[in-house]
Specification:
The protein is mainly α. Helix content is 77%, strand content 0%. Helix 2 runs parallel beside helix 6, helix 4 runs antiparallel to helix 5 and helix 14 runs antiparallel to helix 15.
Length: 470
């Protein structure tokens, strides 16, 4: 069952505002995860951090993201998208402000963990809310914009950190972490007044509130009969419990979303985190200027996402993700040649990998939101995020060890192998969801898709007329 007023609506000012507000979370995520790398030099000196403490600080946010995605996706499905949407940003603001006043390493670790929990929670919150508001034919592109914002946030963090370090040295690290508090507050202001998801309201039987939300946001009146039918369809879906993600038809989808996300993000996160180190292994980048190198790497990943944003809604999700993984492996195999490669070849390979990675990158949050019903949609997004962060944490931890013990060439070949696993998972399990309603895409593969019931005979003309006028 779907709501035509949402599925068939033209893009308007509300959709654009909601997209920017939802993108604020991933932007902050990229910023918060990256600014710590720039500020850690000054922080380590002032707080006398040991190597073990630095590692804990780096890992704390990743552990927090795992916990936040795993648990707060389910909370979002229970309490609603709009409520968690605001609470999550308030936590980010508070933890960012407190980070400015830390005096001990354990305080930094705890605050980074809390920030990670909020970041992990924001992924399913913002993506499920946007997915349930946008029209079918624009859903893939607009959800892809959210991941684009992550890279822009990361690039902004490196650029801000570079400028602050140039002006005041690494002693400005408190200003660096404090800058995130200002950005969090701005995004929080952007999110105030965001309406609740009508699909979530319908799934809870709150049809009057759903009707009012659609009228206020889209200027469309949905017949009560249609919403009641949608409510009955949503509540009749058996797969509405967390354990259903790990059994029956949805188990394969859970594995697919988690594994392709992990295989995409493990090499990518390692390249993003240790980009300057890797470039240094090839004789490129050092000192504070290496932060500019990291910013440039982030921008290149942004450019790689742009063509994929158009293709996922034009040619489909399945061909984009399969071909992207296949092509991503090629530059990593070439980089397996090691430090003997010419500088031009290294730069070309990095750019090629970033360009080809756009496909699975923009689908990281699209697939989990399309393949699961409203009752467990945010839960599924959170679980996929948690699975991916296992790979990200392992990749981040093992990359410097691999670089020192195996060398740059074998390390890049390991990345190519992980990428090919993602290609195989996509080839076997990727489904095509382009242009279909969420009710159709989230139906189990073995069950008939739940299509919208026609409106009542007496209300049909009125409903169609209202849709045309709006």
């Amino acid at each position: 069952m779907s709501i035509r007023a949402i599925d068939e609506a033209p893009l308007n000012r509300f959709h654009r505002k909601l997209t920017w507000a939802c993108a604020g979370g991933p932007f902050l995520d990229g910023y918060l995860l990256s600014i710590i790398g720039v500020s850690l030099v000054g922080m380590s000196h002032e707080l006398s951090l040991t190597t073990a403490e630095e590692s804990l600080i780096g890992a704390a946010a990743l552990v927090g993201i795992f916990v936040g995605g795993l648990f707060f996706g389910a909370v979002t499905d229970r309490l609603g998208r709009e409520a968690m949407y605001t609470i999550d940003l308030a936590v980010l603001v508070g933890a960012s402000v407190l980070s400015v006043f830390v005096t001990e390493s354990w305080q930094v670790v705890i605050l980074r963990f809390v920030l990670g929990v909020a970041i992990g929670a924001d992924y399913p919150i913002a993506t499920s809310l946007l997915a349930e508001w946008v029209p079918n034919k624009h859903r893939g592109r607009l959800l892809g914009v959210l991941i684009l914002a992550w890279y822009i946030g990361a690039a902004a963090a490196y650029a801000v950190g570079f400028v602050m370090a140039e002006i005041g040295g690494h002693g400005t690290w408190r200003w660096m972490v404090g800058s995130s508090a200002v950005l969090c507050a701005l995004v929080l202001l952007m999110r105030l007044g965001t309406p609740e998801s009508p699909l979530w309201l319908v799934s809870k039987g709150r049809t009057d509130e759903a009707q009012a939300a659609i009228r206020r946001a889209l200027g469309r009146t949905v017949p009560t009969r249609e919403l009641i039918a949608a409510s009955a369809a949503e509540q009749s879906v058996v797969q509405s419990r967390v354990r259903d993600l790990f059994q029956g038809a949805y188990l394969r989808r859970t594995l697919f979303c988690g594994l392709f996300y992990m295989c995409q993000i493990t090499p990518m996160f390692a390249l993003m985190t240790f980009g300057p180190t890797i470039l240094g292994s090839f004789g490129l980048g050092e000192g504070n200027s290496s932060h500019l190198g990291s910013a440039l790497i982030s921008i290149v990943f942004v450019l790689g996402c742009l063509p994929a944003l158009r293709m996922v809604d034009r040619i489909g999700r399945r061909p984009v993700i399969i071909w992207s993984f296949a092509l991503m492996a090629v530059p990593l195999v070439v980089l397996g040649g090691g430090s003997s490669l010419p500088v031009a070849a290294v730069i070309l390979c990095f750019c090629a990998y970033a360009l080809f990675s756009g496909g699975p990158t923009v689908l990281e949050w699209t697939y989990p939101n399309e393949l699961f019903p409203t009752g467990i949609r945010a839960t599924a997004g959170g679980v996929a995020t948690s699975i991916s962060r296992v790979g990200a944490a392992l990749g981040t931890y093992l990359l410097p060890i691999s670089l020192s013990r195996l060398g740059i060439g074998p390390t890049m070949l390991i990345g190519a192998g992980i990428t090919l696993v993602g290609w195989l998972v996509s080839l076997l399990w990727a489904e095509e969801t382009r242009g279909r309603t969420l009710a159709e895409t989230s139906a189990p593969p073995t069950a008939p898709a739940r299509r919208s019931a026609p409106p009542a005979k007496g209300a049909a003309g009125l409903a169609d007329g209202e849709l045309e006028r709006s």
